[in-house]
Design brief:
disordered C terminus, 7-stranded mixed sheet, about 250 residues, two-stranded antiparallel sheet, about 35% helix, single chain
Length: about 250
Amino acid sequence: MSELPGLSSAAIAFIVEAEKETSRAFRLLRETRTISPSGTLFYGVRIPGEDKLVTLNYQGFWQEDPDKPKIGVIDFDGNSYWSNPPGGTARYVKLFRTHPEVQAVSHVHTPHLGAYSQAHSTLPLLYVPNRRFRFTAELPVYINRRQPEVDFILDSIANDRQVPGIIEANGGATIWSWKGIRDLTDTIVLLEEGAQFQILGEALGGSKPFGPGVLQQQWRMSKLVPADTYVEDDGTIRDETPAAQAAE
C-alpha cells in the first residue's frame, strides 16, 4: 500500500490508520451486539485536506476476520482510487461536500434503533448521555424515499445544526460525526443504548421527560453553556450574566 495512483503518501498513511481504528470499532460494535447479526454497517471517512473519502465496509460474520474492513477510496466526483467498490458511502458525498466539518458517516442497523425505524418513529433523546453535548431533542425519521436520503439529512442539519443522525424507516440509522471514527462509534453506541433503555422503559410506563435541573447540570458539565447561564427545565436558555441582567 506504499504507492497507489492518485493518492498522496499522506492519504495512504491516513487510510492505514483508519483501517486499524475502524477494525477496532467494528469489533466493539459486534462484541457488544450493537449491530444486528446481519451486519449492515459501513463507515465513510474524510481524508484530511483532500476532497476524497475512504470507505470502510463491514464484511460480516462469514469472513475469517469479520472486523477487517473492505476498503475503497473515492473523490467527490465519484472517481475511484481503489479496486474495491465504495459501497454505500458514495451516496453521502453531497453531505461531505456541503459540510466540510463532517468527518465521518455511518449507515448501521442496530436492534433498538431498528425498532424505532420499523415504527416510523422519531427517536426522542431521553437518555442523558445523548443530550450532554448537544441541544438536539430527537432524531428525525426518514420515510419518503422519493427524496434522496442525503437531501433529507441536509434538511435535518439545516433545521438543527447539532443533530447527529436520522432514523431510516424500515431500515436502520445513519449517523455522522464532526470529529472522526472514534466519536462516530461512541455516538452509535450511545444512541443504540438510549433506544434500548427507552424501549425497556415502556414496560414501566414509558420514558419520562428529564427531571428538574438535568439539562442545566449536563450542559454546564460539558461546557455547552457557560456556568452562569440558567437553563429552564424545558431547555430554554436564559443568560444570567451581569451584562444580561443589566440589559433587562
